[in-house]
Design brief:
Layout (H helix, E strand, L loop, with lengths): L1 H36 L10 H11 L15 E6 L1 E6 L7 H11 L1 E3 L4 E2 L5 E9 L9 E6 L3 E5 L5 E5 L7 E4 L5 E9 L21 E2 L2 E7 L1 H19 L5 H19 L4 H15 L9 E6 L11 H20 L6 E3 L2 H10 L1 H11 L4 E3 L14 H19 L5 E3 L10 H7 L4 E3 L15 E5 L5 E5 L11 H10 L8 E6 L10 H9 L8 E4 L2 H9 L6 E4 L15 H28 L6 H9 L12 H18 E2 L4 E3 L16 E4 L5 E5 L2 E5 L3 E4 L4 E2 L10 E4 L2 E5 L3 E6 L4 E9 L8 E5 L9 E6 L19 E2 L3 E9 L3 E9 L5 E9 L5 E9 L4 E8 L6 E6 L2 E6 L5 H4 L4 E2 L3 E5 L3 E7 L4 E5 L2 E7 L12 E13 L13 H8 L4 E4 L11 E4 L4 E8 L6 E8 L5 E7 L4 E7 L5 E5 L2 E4 L6 E9 L4 E8 L3
Parallel strand pairs: 13-20, 13-21, 14-15, 16-17, 17-19, 18-22, 24-50
Antiparallel strand pairs: 1-12, 2-3, 2-5, 4-11, 5-10, 6-9, 6-12, 7-8, 7-10, 18-19, 23-24, 25-28, 25-50, 26-27, 27-29, 30-31, 31-32, 32-33, 33-34, 35-36, 35-41, 37-38, 38-39, 39-40, 40-49, 41-48, 42-43, 42-45, 44-47, 45-46, 46-49, 47-48, 51-54, 52-53, 53-59, 54-58, 55-56, 55-59, 57-58
Length: 1087
């Protein structure tokens, strides 16, 4: 009984406590409700239109400035004294500018005009503060109509000025009665100076004018109220009409206006109204509300509608402003990408670079991307991508103390299916872009997902659901939430904010908005965070995220694979030249102990892979700068119009004797055959050999020459094929010869590669007028304007022997454009080569070449970095139809089970395959932003390679896979001048086990003078177990490494029989899966 009575008493106490809690909760609810109701007094009338417009006019920059709030932002003003000095197109240091201003500065005033475009002008601004202003908050407002950088007296940049979005004010002290600042004005607008439109060619005679120069009183509280009204007005306009929150925003703003007017804008009423607004913004969201992680950035295009030189100043303007903001905003974070820009800053603005290093120590200013520049995501080859990340990451380590684990390409025009592996290989596990939202046909289905590459590597990817230059407005926050496609799987997304493209970065208004929207009922939460803090949160949702396998194809800007073809040609050419040069430096390191890294040459080259330079979407002046970089590299690296390599560095003395004989280079891992002085000469793998020691290829030659002329055309024939061409240079028939693998092995079989009644090597021209982005886009409707070029004006055999034959054709395109083409066949090669010169003077035309082939397949294969991808040849779905123009590197192929056709090329990237018609895109003629794009002479080559068997192992030439043939087609055999090694070098390395594993790169280590780097990859698309032979006594050990040349694990070296030498040789075993790439760190005995 006692226990029961005790239990009963306990129960009563618990019930009483529960009732008390409920009562308190109800009181709290009532209090919250009362608080909400007390926030405002509703308007007298339910006329929303007048209430909305009243608020708009109250903060307007154009209406009723004598009565509204905006007109009270600035008070009394004072003029300033200005001196000016014109430096023309020269960019000068601070000290030089001050010196010249002292010597020859001229007094000017508001209304002063200066220019022309891209010229440099320095202004000395002298300020006198009157007595009685010492307690006022003051601002220098200087509007030169162009971009400018403010410098302090001590020579430190303090803030950028960008009038296009209103950044013209600089806070100044009111206690110093006499002050002086310097302003470096660049005569250009932030986002280009197009003549008649942003993406038009630059107008080079633009003039600018000082529109405002004054010191004025600044009312900080008025600015706070302007932000309050702006956000509440947005919420009232955009939140659902069915919800009360919309009306709370509208009525609170209206009530605040009444309070301000009734008190004649008194200081006390302004304070109370601001607190009223903050009380409104502090009403919290529910727990399920989405969170936007706000990350400041200033996406600066390294070149686009301005030159590289101007970008250096854009960095200083943007980052100086950012540092100033961060001093007073402890929560703000900022992401810096592109190592090249950091290097420029260190060289040109060392004090600013040091300030950024200091700020990076607190973890709020962070490096992202890890790349040298934000490069194109499709066209650089695999080694170029690794070098972008290798040299970029090294620079980031210097600046921020660590490597970036986030690949950051917000504005690149599509993303290769091999990028996940390349990211992982260089220490990155996260990927950020925004560009996929630009796709014209299909909406990409995810914003957060796992992205898998063709080798199976994966990264966690995120696409911010709004632009990469957000302003943190209510509209942007709500659009981010509505755009987000992964609700229920995650509730976090990035918001990248700050003025961009031409730089600028965040401003104080954006930070004020973020403060108010941190947790404001009705709007997604806004939280300042670093990119890694965001991904830490996203990782928690990773198990719920979807997967995407393969490329991220942007359904827009697909003409960038072709525009400015000379830039693309030089990119491919120098990629190959650097490869050969690094092979020579490796041999010099092994044999002489003095081969060096080519990091300086690579960095200059990588600059031109920026995503508006290599794609050709920049102004003419940037193209000129890019071509100058290429020319200087070619002058340093090659001789004899690129036929020879000039041995550089490595401690070579001018007094050392050079061999009079030409040394020929083969940096490939297989025997090369090349045509020289009417002989077919052979080069051993991985060799540098005197020309006079080379042996001729042993081959059974026909007694007849390769070419035969007939009445209606020509026949080309060798051991692999018989081709017929008409007098217009078109292929009418190509028969591939082979041996059927029957029991006796003697039955001949053929493959007719060209369908009957079809013409291959058919030049076609299309009308090419996109919707807007001229240099960027080719629209699907251009295919409806196809016009074949059917008649050649001349055709004749110009060279003919049992070894080699060439036929010359000339085709007119128009009054000023023509094609001269040499069609050739070599006795030892299974493909026909087309060496082409085009004189091109067209407008909005697109030149392509077509090859209809006798192959039926639902997909074609296209070469990419370290592998290939398959894409549809049909239009079954909108996703298929959108890929009417795609990117490939050295080859494309259309295959059936036992036969196929490949097209090789030496500098083209635009391709397509529709049904059985294969196309290479050759030339465009866009007019914006460069109205001279692609005008002039172009030289390029492509080849037609039909085969029996598979593209990995053609039946009649099993050693000449499509991959190997394309590699050789892009890597002509070159000789080297200045070679110091006395003996022939050959077969230092060898691979057995699979011809699908290729050595892409052999180079000196960046840091260890007694180490080499070797990069291999599997290109056939299947697993492979190989053995790599190491035939040099200096090799000590081999480690598996990553793309940053960091050792991951030691690989045991084993002694095995050498089938070539008949003795034991050291080797290592390597196991590859499909399209896998490996980096080896090979250590040497010191010399």
């Amino acid at each position: 009984m006692k226990n029961k009575r005790l239990s009963s008493n306990v129960l009563k106490l618990l019930l009483r406590h529960h009732k008390l809690r409920v009562r308190r909760h109800l009181v709290n609810v009532v209090s919250m409700s009362d608080e909400s109701r007390c926030l405002y007094k509703a308007p007298l009338f339910k006329n929303e239109r007048t209430t909305f417009e009243r608020i708009e006019k109250f903060i307007s920059e154009h209406h009723f400035l004598d009565r509204n709030l905006r007109g009270r932002l600035f008070g009394k003003s004072l003029p300033v004294k200005i001196k000016h000095c014109d430096f023309g197109q020269q960019i000068v240091s601070f000290n030089k500018a001050v010196e010249e201003l002292t010597k020859r500065g001229v007094p000017v005033d508001v209304g002063f005009t200066f220019g022309p475009t891209w010229s440099t002008h320095w202004f000395q601004v002298d300020i006198e503060i009157p007595n009685g202003w010492n307690k006022k908050e003051l601002m220098l407002r200087f509007d030169a109509g162009c971009e400018a950088l403010v410098w302090g007296l001590e020579g430190r940049p303090t803030q950028g000025l960008s009038p296009d979005f209103g950044r013209i004010g600089v806070r100044i002290s009111s206690t110093l009665l006499v002050q002086r600042v310097f302003i470096e004005a660049s005569a250009n607008e932030r986002n280009g100076d197009g003549n008649g439109g942003q993406i038009r060619p630059a107008k080079l005679d633009r003039m600018f004018q000082i529109r405002l120069a004054e010191v004025t009183e600044y009312n900080r509280l008025v600015e706070e109220l302007l932000v309050d009204f702006e956000l509440m007005l947005e919420m009232a306009k955009l939140l659902p009409k069915e919800g009360a929150r919309r009306y709370e925003a509208l009525y609170t703003a209206n009530d605040m206006i009444n309070r301000l007017i009734s008190s004649n804008f008194s200081l006390e009423s302004r304070k109370k109204c601001h607190e009223q607004a903050m009380q409104f913004f502090r009403q919290a969201n529910g727990a399920s509300q989405m969170t936007l992680y706000a990350i400041g950035n200033c996406h600066i295009d390294t070149a686009w509608l301005w030159r590289f030189e101007e970008t250096k100043r854009k960095c200083a303007r943007s980052w100086a402003t950012t540092l100033s903001l961060m001093e007073n905003n402890s929560k703000m974070t900022f992401a810096v990408s592109q190592a090249q820009q950091l290097v420029w800053l260190r060289e040109q603005y060392p004090s600013l670079y040091e300030d950024m290093q200091d700020r990076a120590m607190d973890g709020k200013l962070v490096g992202v991307g890890g790349s040298w520049v934000e490069m194109d995501g499709n066209m650089p080859n695999g080694e170029s991508v690794i070098r972008q990340l290798l040299y970029g990451q090294r620079e980031f380590k210097k600046m921020f103390g660590n490597y970036s684990n986030i690949f950051w390409l917000p504005d690149t025009f599509g993303y290769s299916a091999q990028l996940p592996q390349l990211m992982r290989h260089c220490g990155m596990c996260y990927f950020v872009t925004q560009k996929m939202s630009w796709s014209l046909v299909n909406k990409f289905p995810h914003h957060s997902f796992r992205w898998f590459g063709i080798d199976g590597s994966s990264v966690l990817a995120h696409f911010p659901p709004h632009h990469y230059v957000a302003q943190i407005t209510v509209n942007e926050c709500l659009e981010s939430m509505s755009n987000f496609s992964d609700h229920g799987r995650s509730k976090v997304a990035m918001m990248l904010y700050g003025h961009g493209d031409g730089g600028g970065g965040p401003d104080e208004i954006m930070l004020k908005r973020a403060e108010r929207l941190a947790d404001c009922d009705g709007v997604p939460k806004v939280r300042h965070a670093t990119p890694n803090e965001f991904f830490d949160e996203l990782e928690k949702d990773s198990d719920n995220l979807c997967e995407w396998r393969g490329e991220l194809y942007l359904e827009l800007h697909n003409a960038t694979y072709t525009t400015q073809s000379m830039i693309k040609k030089m990119n491919r050419l120098i990629e190959g030249i650097l490869r050969d040069h690094e092979f020579l430096q490796t041999i010099a390191r092994i044999e002489l102990g003095r081969g060096r890294s080519l990091s300086d040459e690579w960095k200059r080259f990588l600059l031109n892979q920026f995503h508006d330079v290599l794609p050709g979407t920049c102004i003419k002046e940037v193209v000129e700068d890019a071509m100058l970089i290429y020319k200087r590299l070619l002058d340093e690296l090659t001789i004899d119009k690129g036929k020879g390599l000039k041995m550089i560095g490595s401690g070579i003395s001018e007094n050392e004797p050079l061999s009079p004989n030409k040394w020929v280079v083969n940096s490939c891992g297989w025997i090369r055959t090349f045509f020289h002085n009417n002989r077919l000469l052979q080069l051993a793998p991985f060799s540098v050999t005197p020309m006079n020691e080379l042996k001729s290829l042993k081959i059974e030659l026909s007694k007849q020459p390769i070419a035969t002329e007939e009445e209606d055309g020509f026949i080309l024939q060798n051991h692999f094929l018989i081709a017929k061409l008409n007098k217009n240079g078109q292929l009418t028939s190509v028969k591939v010869l082979g041996v059927n693998e029957s029991r006796n092995g003697s039955d001949s079989e053929m493959f007719e590669a060209i369908p009957s009644e079809s013409l291959a090597n058919q030049f076609v021209i299309f009308d090419d007028v996109p919707l807007y982005w001229d240099a960027w886009d080719v629209m699907d409707y251009h295919m409806e304007t196809r016009k074949p070029l059917t008649k050649a004006s001349s055709a004749n055999v110009v060279e003919n022997s049992p070894l080699y034959a060439r036929i010359r054709f000339e085709i007119r395109i128009g009054k000023e454009s023509a094609i001269v083409q040499f069609v050739s066949l070599r006795t030892d090669l299974p493909y026909i080569t087309f060496d082409t010169t085009v004189l091109w003077h067209e407008a909005h035309k697109f030149l392509k070449v077509e090859f209809p082939v006798n192959v039926n397949s639902a997909q074609a294969s296209y070469d990419i970095q370290y592998g290939y991808v398959n894409r549809p040849t049909h239009r079954n779905t909108s996703w298929d139809a959108a890929k009417y123009e795609v990117c490939a590197h050295k080859w494309m192929a259309l295959c059936e089970y036992n036969r196929g056709v490949a097209l090789l090329n030496d500098c083209k990237y635009g391709h397509a395959c529709e049904g059985n018609v294969m196309r290479i895109s050759l030339l465009r003629s866009s007019k914006s932003p460069d109205d001279t794009a692609d005008m002039g002479q172009h030289k390029f080559s492509y080849a037609f390679y039909p085969f029996l068997g598979s593209m990995q192992r053609p039946a009649s030439s099993p050693k000449v896979s499509v991959m190997r043939a394309a590699f050789e087609f892009n890597s002509p055999v070159r000789y080297v001048e200045g070679w110091q090694v006395e003996n022939k070098i050959a077969n230092l390395f060898a691979i057995t086990g699979s011809e699908g594993v290729m050595v892409d790169t052999i180079k000196p280590s960046e840091d260890d003078e007694n180490a080499l780097i070797m990069r291999l990859f599997e290109c056939f698309g299947g697993g492979a177990y190989i053995r790599l032979y190491l035939r040099h006594a200096r090799i000590v050990s081999v480690d598996l490494a990553d793309g940053l040349e960091r050792s991951l694990a030691n690989i045991p070296i084993e002694g095995v029989p050498d089938t070539d030498e008949g003795s034991s040789v050291e080797s290592i075993a390597l196991d590859f899966h499909a399209f896998e790439m490996k980096t080896l760190l090979i250590r040497l005995f010191s010399m």
